[in-house]
Description:
The protein is an alpha+beta fold and 113 residues long. The chain folds into two domains: 2-61, no CATH class; 71-112. Helices cover 38% and strands 12% of the residues. The protein contains four helices and three strands; from the N terminus they run H-E-E-E-H-H-H. A three-stranded antiparallel beta sheet has the order 1-2-3, with no helix packed on it. The protein binds zinc ion. Zinc ion binds at residues 28, 30-31, 33, 51, 53, 56, 58.
Amino acid sequence: xxxxxxxxxxxxxxxxxxxxxxxxxxxxxxxxxxxxxxxxxxxxxxxxxxxxxxxxxxxxxxxxxxxxxxxxxxxxxxxxxxxxxxxxxxxxxxxxxxxxxxxxxxxxxxxxx
Length: 113
Ligand SMILES: [Zn+2]
């Protein structure tokens, strides 16, 4: 889809920042919009974005394609799940991950048993 990638280039050619993530893999986790701007970096060096939808303006960090989450985060979340903490509370402690991901992990743990 060459046309689509051209469109993305136009869409994101407003900030002048060097792209750190593949634009096509980045969507706003809150509203699903592809209309965002680069928004600095996290302390651990990951690219931050900010949704440009007027009704949203949600700042977020992009998950790499394939949604790889580091083992430390995974362990922490697994432990919280093991202690019966609801996903909606976990996400407050671990803000980098998506609620959907926690549910997915929870389901996977259940299936393992
Ligand atoms: Zn948004």
